[in-house]
Amino acid sequence: MRTIKILGSGCKKCLETAELAQAVADEKAVTVTIEKVTDMAQIMAYGVMSTPAVVVDEKVVHKGSKPTKEQLTSWI
């Protein structure tokens, strides 16, 4: 099982990123846990200055924009 964290303030792009990540996981039949992290101290602990950001299994794989479906597919 993979853990995916969506880092962000809870804005529309952050919510869409979380929904897209879950949709891709469902499509690929991969079990994932998706966490939304909105605490700025936790976000900054990952070295992220612009959101949304995606963390897969504790590794920052994307930051600063909503990722594409293809990008999420490659990470999941």
Gyration radius from CA atoms, angstroms: 11 Å
Quickly count the helices: 3
Under CATH at level 1, the class stands as Alpha Beta
Give me the CATH fold name.
Glutaredoxin
Residue stretches low in confidence (pLDDT < 50, at least 5 long) are none
Mean of pLDDT: 94
- Rounded to the nearest angstrom, the distance between the terminal CA atoms is 10 Å
* Widest sheet, order of strands: 2-1-3-4
Description:
- The chain contains 3 helices and 4 strands.
- By secondary structure, the chain is α+β, with helices and mostly antiparallel strands.
- It has a single domain (2-65), classed as Glutaredoxin (3-Layer(aba) Sandwich), CATH 3.40.30.10.
- The chain has a 4-stranded mixed sheet.
- The chain starts with a strand and ends with a helix.
- The mean pLDDT is 94.
SSE layout and pairings?
Blueprint: E1 2-7, H1 12-28, E2 32-37, H2 40-45, E3 53-56, E4 59-63, H3 69-75
Q: How is this structure best summarized?
A:
This protein is of the alpha+beta class and 76 residues long.
